[in-house]
Amino acid sequence: MGHKGENLTGEIPDRSAKRYRESALVTYDCRSGTFAYRVTGTEPRSQTAEGRPLWQILEEERYSDKQTAEAFREKLMEIAGMNMPCVYFTEYPLRDGQGKCRWYRVGFICSEPGRCVNITFTDIGEEVFDEAHLKRMLETDPLTGLMKRETFCRAVESLSVSDDAAAGGYAMIFFDIVHFKAVNDIFGTDEGDRLLRHIASVINELAREGDLTCRFGSDRFTIFTHDAGPGLEERIERMLVRIESFGLPIGIMCSMGVYMTEETRLSAELMIDRAILAQSVIKGSYMQRFSYYNEELRNAMLTEQEITGMMENALRKKNFVLCYQPQYNHHTGMLVGAEALVRWKNDGRGMIQPGTFVPIFEKNGFITKLDMYVFEEVCAFLRRCMKNGVPMVPVSTNFSRHDIFQPDFVERLESVRKRYKVPVEFLRVEITESSIRGNSKMTNEVISKLHEHGYIVEMDDFGSGYSSLNVLKDIELDIVKLDMLFLSEEAGGNRGGTILSSVVRMLKWLGTPMIAEGVETVEQADFLRSIGCDIIQGYLYAKPLPEAEYMELVRKQAIETRLPQLEVIDKFDVGNFWDPKSQETLIFNNYVGGAAIFSYCNGKLEILRVNRKYLQEVGMNLSEKDFLASDAFSVFDEENRSVYVEMLDEAILTMEEQECETWRHYRSGVCGEAKICIRSNVRMIGRCGDNYLFYAMIRSVRQEKESDRRNAGREKRCEEAGEEADTHYWEYDNAHAGAHTV
Ligand code: C2E
Ligand code: CA
Ligand code: CA
Fold first, then answer.
1. 53 φψ region: left (φ > 0), alpha (ψ -120 to 50), beta (else)
2. Which domain holds residue 360?
3. Does 448 map to a domain?
């Protein structure tokens, strides 16, 4: 390619010379991004072309205007990105050496996708048009006929200058097609072009008089409309529907940002930037297809820029400081651990909370550096505790989803830990529920590795959305953290409580200790205790404390480092037990009689599960939910209750199966009230501190009892009669009734 003054073939232009019409060949190497220029004419190729991108040469050497050069670059990139062979021809007006515009036929040929694209230029010798034609050519996009970017911006600005109303009351709309590349890839570039022309025709059709419309580049479009009143939204909707109705087997979807102009005038580019910013919020959402710009968005963007600019320096200057929030056993009042929470001590902005910077660091990847720094600070702190004779309490460190999938994540933790010589049992790794999404296998690999080294792994924010109870079964977690915020507020009190109790019930059954977070009131804490969740972290006990204050607290506070955990005595696969399709559930539901699992703690009995036959035995049209929701002891009167408790105590003492019969008083909405005699056989299957887990088999013996009663009545009458006759002719002995007949 030539420098200024030469034409594309590197020769002095000579209209009579036929070889001028020969073509130039440019080869683009997709992998290295470099160009090689070959000319079929006689002239050696220009040295100045060496190593320079084609579009740069086109623009800088004034072969074309900036926008044509840009269109060129986009087309080339699009074709270089295709994953199948393709040939694409188009025509561009380019200037020759004398500054005259001529038509060139340009071919993009990609026979080896991913390797190289050949670009051919052929002067098709068309005589160049008059100036007006040329101007139009340069100002409009040849494919769609819409304005080109520069023209559009100029037009917008001249409009705002000449039209006072343009200061307010206009809207700048920006949109593009979600996955446009897929259209090109699957259906070919011709189809892609047809779609772009379809969009242009829809825009033009729905445009109001005076609106400016533009193909901003590739699949991006902008519209500047003065009709930004109440009808705008409806017009946008209509436009989207029309665009998206383009008949292709895959759905076409647009994503749009809208900036409503304000009193102060902005340049066209700035208005477009704002529309793009508005669009960025909904990118990737299938629900929302357009969104408006607002000042908060801009502030968020500015904050993000500011924070990103300062973060590296802040880390170097150790401006990130740690707080420790204590965790207590509500049952015993003892300290069981703490969570390290980071803050940013910033000269200009005071203390910045993690809610502001953590999401930004997660986006830009800096979080991994910060989390490693926090972990190191935690190790250093624990080392200081050891040195100063301060009792050791485990500390949890938060790790973002970006951290844990780093290939050397565990090795890096280990190298820091060893440097500070901190025993691993005092370090807990907190990962969030969202890390697990779709990554169960990878997550478990990381967790296993952490376990091999002895780390305790906690799952943060359980209940924040994605969590399904299956996660608990699939992921080998040591501790689950339940956030009160997620469970109460949005779920609306009562439902939150129900969800929470079923989660807690399941966790207990799995033997997974839990920590309730964000506990602010005594009522919450008591409720948590009542459902068996004892470890509490929240403002009720303590806010996150600066290191010195926390260390003081540790010195004074009674400490308990072992979290209570359920020991399962029988060989049950507790995980399977909750899986509706598991063998255990099948057996539980179908092959044993009426059965229940319940926990028994300090005189409180809570049913965790009952099977179908249990419900049938009791009858009364009661459901499993009725049993789980109610106080299990409420069906007993004083006497029957003590019979039952005695049996449980005996079962705990002997660790053997025990049996009893009790009368129970059931109520149901459908069947009213009834007294039913139940024979139960129970066996203790697990233990966690004072909390015992039982398996119970039940059988209703009401009918037997009733006939017993009748018999007993008859016996009594006979006895009386016999006594009278001094004859003992009836003896009743009921082996089953045992000692506890009621
Ligand atoms: P998180 O891990 O869920 O931490 C608990 C947050 O709840 C903390 O906010 C804590 O101060 C707050 N909190 C504790 N008790 C209560 C309470 O009773 N009521 C209320 N309303 N809030 C309570 P903080 O310190 O602002 O941290 C916010 C989030 O920032 C953390 O949520 C965590 O996701 C993230 N974060 C904090 N430090 C780090 C870190 O070192 N690394 C990473 N990756 N994330 C961190
Ligand atoms: Ca956390
Ligand atoms: Ca949390």
1. beta
2. 304-559
3. yes
Mean pLDDT by 10 residues, the chain (742 residues): 35 38 79 82 52 86 83 88 85 75 85 90 68 76 91 88 64 93 89 94 88 93 88 91 86 91 84 94 82 91 92 96 94 92 91 94 94 98 95 96 92 97 96 79 92 94 62 80 68 51 68 87 79 86 96 89 59 56 63 80 83 86 79 90 94 90 88 89 81 86 74 60 39 32 26
Phi first, then psi, for residue 580 (nearest 5°) are -60, -20
Question: In this structure, which residue's CA is closest to atom 46 in ligand 1?
Answer: 398
For the Cβ of 489 lying below 6 angstroms from any atom of ligand 1, the answer is no
* Residue-by-residue DSSP string for 374-395: HHHHHHHHHHHHHHTTPPP--E
Count of domains for the chain: 4
Ligand 1 contacts CB of residue 325 (under 6 A):
yes
Ligand nearest to the CA of 327: 1
Number of CB atoms found within 10 A of residue 470's CB: 12
Residue 288 CA to residue 283 CA, distance in Å, equals: 9
Residues 550 and 689 both lie in one domain: no
Specify whether 340 is located in the same domain as 437. Answer: yes
Phi-psi region of 620 (alpha: psi -120 to 50; beta: other; left: phi over 0): left
The CA 460 to ligand 3 mean position distance, Å, reads 5
- The Cα 436–Cα 461 span in angstroms is 12
Give CA separation, 337 vs 276, 340, 392, 456, 732, in Å: 46, 10, 9, 12, 62
CA dihedral over 422, 423, 425, 430, signed as positive or negative? positive
DSSP state of 245: T
Q: Tell whether 226 and 111 lie within a shared domain.
A: no
